[in-house]
Amino acid sequence: MLSLQHTRRDFLRSSVGLAGLTLPTFLKAQAVSAPRRRKAKACIIIYTWGGMSHYETFDPKPEAPVDIRGEFKTTRTATPGIQFSEHIPLLAKHSNKLSIVRSVHHNNGAHSGAVYLNMTGHHPEGQIKAKGRKNWPSITSVISHFHRPIAGVPGAVRMPYSMYDNGRQMAGEGAGWLGAKYDPILMRTPAGEPYGGVSRYDDPALNLKLNLEKERISDRLTLLEQLDQSLGQRMGDSTAYEKLDHYRQMAADMLLGSPVREAYDLDLEDQRIRDMYGNHIGGQSLLLARRLVEAGVPVVQAVCSAGDLAGGGGDNWDTHRNHFFKMKNRLLPVFDRAVSALLTDLEMRGMLDETLVVFLTDFGRTPKVNGNGGRDHHPGVYSMAFAGGGVHGGQVYGASDTKGIEPAAGACSPADIHATVYKAMGIDHNAELHDQLDRPYLICEGQPLPIV
Amino acid sequence: MIRILLLSFVAVAGQALGQAVDPPAIDAIKKNGGLILPAPGGENQWNIQFQLRGRDLKDAGLADVAKLGGVVELNLRDTKITSAGLVHLKGLAKLTRLHLERTNIGDEGVANLAGLTKLEYLNLYSTKITDKSLGHLTGLKNLRQLYVWQTDVTDAGIAKLKKTLPAISIVKGIDLTAIIPVEKEKPKPEDDLKWLPDGGDEKPPAKSVTGEFTIVRFVNNRDKAVKLFWIDYGGKPKLYGVIEPGAERRQNTYEDAVWMVANQRDMPLGYFVTGRAFARAIIPK
Questions:
Q1: Which of A48, A192, A287, B106 could hold B128 in an S-S bridge, CB 3.0 to 4.6 Å?
Q2: What's the predicted TM-score (pTM) here?
Q3: CATH superfamily membership of A42-200+259-442
């Protein structure tokens, strides 16, 4: 792996990023890290915020009693022997690309803990805060630490908003002790109908839309002033300066003609491709994710849900009430179309074998449908999936029991899922990373699943 | 200390580059915006990428790549190369992955790839190639992945190449004209919410309960402006706005919410309780 550090100054001096490195620097970088053989060069993480029901997606239980199996039927997939729930018919056609894991489990039934666990691979200890620098880094941050992009391209991007539960921002999406430099950049997707419900916009997010209209940006000082106004004023915490500098550098580099700026302009995309993803913020986020990967962003995370659960009222996967109506009419159609479009698109562009797609969620939903026609939190067993990036498709790893209550085979943890992602990305899951005080941490406590 | 470091750089340089590498070629590739990354699999193996910052690369620039030797992966996506430039790739015997997608190359160019027998991955989508190009690939026994979306390659051409190279996967992609946009949700026939006049027999609940997201269109049929209040989860009225006579207000809300309509002096006139479906709420004369 190539691990290069660059400053904005370096970039401006050379104006061609990595290509402008002097030969000695380049060779030093080469000597420091011998490249590892890997398939995946980029990663797209799809997070179904709120806790996606395994019953109504990848692990239907048609043989279970009706109060458990629910209202939906099953559908055949492109792979004999694998069945999905009926309302993801497009995704069912892509089963030959998917590696489904039906046996993930943990013991944290609260959103805050479950998000943290699934995003960082580690159990929360004590009070965790959304922007805490004592937190473990998110999987996106860790990947971006090992896969450095060229100058002017963010190491990690997340879209389209942060995860909140009733106004409280969740911990686990940031870089924690890795430092602000590795915080994924929050980007607002420029198009698509938003999810119904509440989405909060407290975090500084890059919105390149205004700048897309400008043909030429020659005066860097003016540019930085603009950035100060749009980003700087919103940061009041103690690391503001560090953060501001990070954002300024990133934004300035991007606006100065990086491939990312072009990628962000979805109007440059064929309208039919945009239609394929669906004119919804969920679909357009994944389209943008593909374009960002093409532009050299190593890892992109898209939250597929309204940003704030707000009691489960809006379009999010926390379906305590009216579960079947919401899954069928609001959540699954967007998810099915967007994710299927992404897989089709990556495949026909020849990008799928080098792009790892990972589906993560908080937990599954309870076996019994509750009195409000909903399913509650169930970390006892749930499903997730991988596609592309050298993962073998058309297979199921592990199984839940006949009622979908707990793992019956291949029980695995969020940490094992993370170890699998790291392996596919050519990252040693036993690697040590150092925090800002140079204390060593083992990045992952899990073991890779035998599917890569 | 500095001297020691410098010496070690020189040592590394000699070790990594061996004798085969041409430093001016490296400089030229970088000048054209190419990234040179070490590739796995031993010394002097390179992964060269022009698709990020080297999109202005022209045919002449490929001569520098040819001089480098040891190129295992080469990405020329979105560059300005043409068929004529591909003659420079003829000698890249170690090449396993080649990206030529979204360039102006055609069949004449692909003819130059016929001897690259190590090729495993070849991306030709959105180029000017036809079935003729597939004919040039029949000797590439290691070729496993071939991408021909948005080209004039036909199913017959694909079938023919598959006979010669049975292990190959050829991705032709989808026909974009077959994509049907999602119909924008038609405004459903809206329910009319029941008007519960203040002081009437049917009383509204004392407070809102959270439920599913929905939208209510308030229509003011009175000849005076009214104030619209949401009764919050604690039972307190919260002002949302004023609706002028004859005007409408589209309001995002949730099922089981209580909305109070009052006159300009905040005297309640009546209430609506939302349901699950999108609805219209007519404020009577």
A1: B106
A2: 0.81
A3: Alkaline Phosphatase, subunit A (3.40.720.10)
